[in-house]
Each structure stands twice: as structure tokens, then as C-alpha cells.
Amino acid sequence: MPVLSRFYGVVVLMYFFDNRQHQQPHIHVQYGDQEAVISIPDGNVITGLISTSKLKLVQAWIEIHQDELMTDWRLAVTGQAISKIEPLK
Fold this sequence. Notes:
Blueprint: E1 3-7, E2 10-13, E3 26-31, E4 34-39, E5 45-49, H1 52-64, H2 66-76
Antiparallel strand pairs: 1-2, 2-3, 3-4, 4-5
């Protein structure tokens, strides 16, 4: 499970070959014991729970890096190496 980025205690991951269960581009987000799966196109939570304040940070990060995330998504679903993405500052 490659880590794409880390910021403000949030860990953002993208799994390889992970397009079957949720069937849409997404990231996995962990913050402490909280976990959520978040859609890349719209920043909505697909499953799981994460605090509202951390979700807003992740949504802002997704908006800034949407093109990079979609590039990584296309690579990850075919099992290819993905690139790390700058953290939110």
C-alpha cells in the first residue's frame, strides 16, 4: 500500500489493483484510528469515517493535486509504480 503523502497527521494511500470494490478513482486516508475511502473526482467519503476538519484538509489537497492523483490512479489500477505527491502546507 504505497503512501502518496502525509500532512497534519493524515496519511494518504493508494492501493494497487483497487478498482473493483469501489469502482471509482479513490484514495485511502488514515488519521489516528480513523480511516476513510475518499473519491478523487469529488472528494466525497465513499466509506469509513474521518473528522470533519481532517476531511476538509484532504478535500483541499485533492482539489490541488487532482491531475496527479488521476495519473497515479491510472498507474495503480494496472499495478505500475506511482509517484508521491506534495503534502498540504
